[in-house]
Design brief:
- The protein is mainly beta and 180 residues long.
- The protein has a single domain, classed as Electron Transport, Fmn-binding Protein, Chain A (Pnp Oxidase, Chain A), CATH 2.30.110.10.
- Helices cover 12% and strands 43% of the residues.
- It contains three helices and 13 strands, in the order E-H-E-E-E-E-E-H-E-H-E-E-E-E-E-E.
- Strand 12 and strand 13 form a beta hairpin.
């Protein structure tokens, strides 16, 4: 089954009043929760990436919104509707976020050598020990500019937060959001 894919209207003109480098530098100031997305491409095996563009979309039905680059290793699998996991790592899993964020030499399936992984109820790879794992089916995919806006319908949630702090990313570095 293929996911629903919609494109932005062709007649929409985006204003070019902001320097893209300035925009990127401004966005680096926005601290974001780190998420590791994982799925399986039927032709190429498991794939994933680190993202900060993840948020709650709706509580009823439970769903998340995720933005990924159309050139990413996950894009084809997402377009095909493969189930995905959205894993929220703890600070002791920063090495996993680095591997999936392209900050190491690991590529493709080799990224899964960082951390411990298992198959979730949906069949998507899930990160063992993540503070929270959301397993999702792909509800809708919207192509916009360089990215895909993905609405994931939550199928299962696994929690493991006790005594573990969340990993965030800001100003080009990982940190924690907790002051204890």
């Amino acid at each position: 089954m293929s996911a629903i894919v919609a494109a932005a209207p062709r007649d929409v003109q985006m204003p070019r009043t902001v320097d893209p480098r300035g925009f990127k530098q401004g966005m680096r100031a926005l601290a974001g929760a780190v998420a590791i997305l994982a799925t399986e491409d039927p032709d190429h095996g498991c794939c994933g990436l680190t993202a900060t563009a993840v948020c709650s979309f709706s509580a009823d039905p439970p769903s998340l919104l995720v933005c990924i680059n159309q050139k990413s290793s996950m894009a084809a699998a997402i377009r095909e509707g493969s189930p995905l996991s959205i894993n929220l790592p703890a600070t002791d899993q920063e090495h996993v976020a680095r591997a999936f964020g392209g900050m190491t030499t690991a590529k493709g399936v080799a990224r899964f050598s960082a951390g411990s992984w298992a198959r979730g109820e949906s069949g998507a790879p899930i990160l063992i020990g993540a503070r929270a794992v959301f397993e999702c089916s792909v509800g809708e995919v919207i192509a916009r500019s360089s990215h895909l806006i993905v609405i994931g319908l939550v199928l299962a949630v696994t929690l493991d937060r006790e005594g573990r702090e969340p990993l965030v990313y800001a100003d080009g570095r990982f940190a924690t959001a907790c002051n204890r």
